[in-house]
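step 4 of 6: structure.
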Amino acid sequence: MTPILETRGLVKRFGGVAAIDGVDFRLEPGELRCLIGPNGAGKSTFFKMLTAQYAPTAGQILLDGDDITDEEPSEISRRGVGIKNQVPDVLDGLSVRENIWIAARGRHDTAGADHAVSEILERLNLGPLADRVVGKLSHGHRQWVEFGMVLAINPRLALLDEPTAGMTAEETRRTAELIREMNRSMAIVVVEHDMQFVRTIAHRVTVFDQGRILAEDTMDRIQVHPEVLRIYLGTSGHA
Amino acid sequence: MHEIVIHLYQVMFAIGIFVLISLGLAVIFGMMRVINLAQGEFIMLGAYFCLFATQLGLDFWLAVLCAGLGVGLFGILVERLLIRFLYGRIMDTLLATWGLSLFMVGLVTSVFGPQEAGVDAKLGKVTFGAYSIAEYNLVLIAVAGALLALTFAIWRYTRFGLVARSVMQNPTMAAALGVNPRKYYMLTFGFGSALTGVAGAMLAPLVGNQPTMGSFYVAKAFVTVISGGPAPLTGTLYASTLFGATDGLISYRTTQVLGEIGVLLIAIVLLRMLPLGITGHSARRA
Amino acid sequence: MFARLSETQSVSLPPALWWTAVALALAAGLAIPSFTGLDVHLDLSIIFIFGILALSMGFMWGQVGMLSFGQTAFFGLGGYTYAVCSLNFGETTSAMLLAILLPAIFATVLGYFMIYGRISNIYFTVITMVVTIVLEKAIRATSDESFVIGDVWLRGQNGIAGLPDLQVPWDPATTLFVTEVYYLAFVLMMAVYVGYRMLLRHRFGRVLLGIRENERRINLLGYDTRRYKLAIFAISGAVAGLAGGLYAVWGNFVAPEMMNLNSAASVVINVIVGGKATLLGPLIGTGVVQWLTAWLGTAGVGQVNLVLGLVLIGFVMLFPQGILPMAAGLGREALEAARQLFRRRDLAAAALRKETNS
Ligand SMILES: Nc1ncnc2c1ncn2[C@@H]1O[C@H](COP(=O)(O)OP(=O)(O)OP(=O)(O)O)[C@@H](O)[C@H]1O
Ligand SMILES: [Mg+2]
């Protein structure tokens, strides 16, 4: 089966620093994968390369087997890739409704967009905030708005960078539910630091460290992987 | 043979002019990221300083120094009264300095009147085969080169340059190390203004000086600095060379306006290909 | 269909109310000539024409975040196009249409290089300014009698005088006189205002607002923002060209001053004084500033530049929002005070507070 997403030898250098240093990654259609790794491992950089926010220094990105390495962010989006960036990346001066409507209108006609917006507002419990200006909402609420925008473009592949940061325990639980629900119709990659959360949603986990894939396995095995323990717990292990 | 040399001279002269009018801006915009739309009026002010000083009987070269000093001080005043409130608000800086430029034109017009006035540098001509070249123009080329080298040296090798560079790159860090970033912003702005003042004075003998003369230079200066890219000094040198050569050759053969249009067209096409400017891909900043 | 979308801050009045206001303004504007003299018609027409120009800049700056100094260049180009074409053709309808079309094409070509080169917004501003300066210089340099387009000599500094009056398209024998020009300028200004406003209600305009807020995000949503920016630049170039054509009709005269830096500055000042956040702002600002400059002129202040410069600095430093939002802010406070007085509990607000606290 052709993987929905594949990278070959992906490299990104910022000056002398290699933030991504030769990543070969595969994701099967419909899969839900978690990406973990210490701060600065390159997870966000990886996502930004997949969506053409950064141009790769070397390597290839394939979507459904098509080379998309040199495509524009808008082209990649129209191929069905949606991203929620780590820092809430929303339209601060516009209302919640407008934010989601603009996202939806790219994929629907006006009536369809109006419809999609009310559906998403309800699904995310954003109804009461619909006409508030996004810039004045809390960090958590802005995360939800960005979630709404990803839902509104109805992607085939969703990239979610730390979706639960700044959320309450209850919101985190709802997010986990939402992600599982989304996974019925799309492949998802989630970057997370909260291991409990990772455990509740993921089948397979990929561990990034210093711009490389350190390990890739089920959560149970990852948890006892000596290299992973070493980078997370700082124990010298056997190395 | 003479033809070639005379062409070379034309081109060098045009490059020298480009370097002169954009060097101060390269310091202010290129290093501080402050857009000073009054750049043309700073040049005008330099020319008027020179005009005024020579009318008082001062030697031309002393007048040039006075212009540098005077416009430098004026720049510091502007930084204190205007610019420092607008750091980080690049669009607002642009608008405020535009207001400043209108204000300066209005002010100088009401003091000196709108008419043109000339300055005589009292230099002769050298003859070259069938051609004769104004000595002053040769001196101007040398001065432009010297100013560029001087700025480069100050920026690169003096303590002031070193500290100023680190302040521009990371003000918080510099402040943590006990440097007062405000002082360096102020001095750098003053330094850029002084360079512009000298440029204005150097241009004074070549043109009819009038309060609105700034608009003749502001376009060229910005095109040069923007096209130069993130390394302002080397960028200015490259861009001046490119545009000076274009302008020199076209103007010499046709008209000045066509020269300017040619420069603008090249700049626009250049920015389509290299949006970050000529030095956009080199890592080091200087 | 847009009723729900429009009740947000970017488009603030409810549509019914807004349409009523537009109708009232239209009625008032059309009524004015019947009880005023020709001099008033003349003075108001030029305000409307500059109002159109200010809208073309204010829309891009306030709604899209692109500050273009090139509007003055398009304005001048429109004027010169009308001049050259009407004198050559002996016919004004196509001249006026070309005065709109040519600046639009020029804006498209120029915009392509800038926008597709992805230069930053600040460089966009500077380059449009440089283009304006160079265009003005180019026109000024046409004093020589060899600069002729068709039968029309461009005349450099002196400008071209004696332009024909605008003919009624279906009846070329009839030409528009002062009062008719007033009607035309007024109706076109209202049309441009309503047009821009309608644009904001639709997908295209919404995406432009999104670009102002966060261009990268809009790209990530699948819109190629370069196309949108280029399109609005071309549209606004056409609108500025229209204003230029009308200016040529109004005074039967064009000159390089149409596109010099002072004209560019006065457009910016009109917009910033009125406030760029709304579309009404540029129109109000144009009225206020035109009135102010006329008053300065009669009050014998020799250096208008000096005053305009100070006004610009003052607004940027002290009132960057302009006078209209300030007035609106005062209005809102009054409204709020009235609410407090009646102690009316807004149920929705209470529910909201509950929601945010949980
Ligand atoms: N725009 C940039 N310029 C220079 N360096 C960068 C840039 N973006 C990221 N880096 C560097 O690349 C490395 C990887 O950063 P990245 O943000 O991808 O890490 P991360 O795994 O997402 O970390 P976190 O868990 O903290 O979000 C870091 O060393 C960072 O400093
Ligand atoms: Mg990250």
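step 5 of 6: annotate
 - The interface with chain C takes residues 51, 53, 72-75, 77-78, 82-83, 89-95, 97-98, 101-103, 105-107, 110-111, 114, 125, 128-129, 131-133, 138, 149, 153 of chain A (CB under 8 Å).
 - Residues 110-123 of chain A form the longest helix (14 residues).
step 6 of 6: archive
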